[in-house]
Write a structure and sequence with these properties.
Number of domains: 2
Low-confidence stretches: 202-207
Radius of gyration: 17 Å
Number of helices: 5
Largest sheet: 6 strands, antiparallel
Number of strands: 9
Distance between the termini: 22 Å
Order of helices and strands: HHHHEEEEEEEEEH
Shape: globular
Strand order of the largest sheet: 1-2-3-9-4-7
Oligomer: single chain
Structural class: alpha+beta
Mean pLDDT: 81
CATH class of the largest domain: Mainly Beta
CATH superfamily of the largest domain: Jelly Rolls
CATH topology of the largest domain: Jelly Rolls
Strand content: 15-25%
Length: about 210
């Protein structure tokens, strides 16, 4: 992912070009004016789901904020461990996108690496369209869904409707790795996924 300062500046530039106020962007994304103001100034990081809302409101492709997405080879379906490169979601979260063709499938598989966080830090819950699967590969992750707290250990998993306010955090002193799968894929037009689901023979969207 591009540095948060550059992302914020790009969002502000696009917003001003559209003649949109922070309040209007806040209403379109359900993110607070204060958060958006800090984000545009590079003072606050943003989760990919929230960034997707901002991108939609500004008619920007979500992939434009990621440095590794457009460099991949969409014809190579195998992801080699030694070729995996992280995107920096925020100072304590890294993600590995497990696809060389994020625009071609309705599922988005990712591995997140979560650094330890302060237990007193306030965690903001967010919601978005679709369903989400989470599987713990390493460490202990705390998952909040509808303000209900779940502690998941290696081998544990959970499937949720993404419309439920949710978020996860690493409250331990060790690194946590989780596998997540989102449907629909935020990089793919939702209508394409709906059409594909209705056609049993259409397992893949041609890029």
């Amino acid at each position: 992912m591009i540095a948060k300062e550059e992302i914020g500046a790009r969002v502000k530039s696009k917003r001003l070009k559209l003649g949109m106020t922070l309040k209007e962007l806040s209403q379109a994304t359900e993110l607070s004016v204060g958060f958006l103001s800090q984000f545009e100034r590079g003072m606050s990081s943003i989760a990919i789901d929230s960034l997707e809302k901002v991108a939609d409101a500004l008619s920007l492709p979500l992939s434009s904020f990621f440095s590794n997405i457009d460099e991949s080879n969409p014809t190579d379906q195998v992801i080699r461990y030694y070729d995996m490169r992280p995107d920096h979601v925020n100072p304590r979260i890294f993600q590995y996108v497990l696809s060389n063709n994020v625009h071609g499938y309705c599922l988005l598989p990712r591995i997140f690496m979560l650094m330890p966080m302060n237990e007193n830090r306030k965690i903001e819950l967010y919601s978005h369209n679709g369903d989400e699967f989470l599987y713990v590969l390493e460490g202990v992750v705390t998952l909040y869904v509808d303000n209900e707290k779940h502690v998941l250990y290696p081998g544990d998993s959970m499937l949720i409707h993404s419309k439920q306010p949710h978020n996860w955090i690493n409250l331990t002193n060790n690194v946590v790795r989780i596998l997540t799968v989102n449907c629909p894929n935020p990089f793919v037009n939702t209508q394409h996924c709906a059409d594909t689901a209705m056609d049993p023979a259409a397992h893949r969207i041609e890029s």
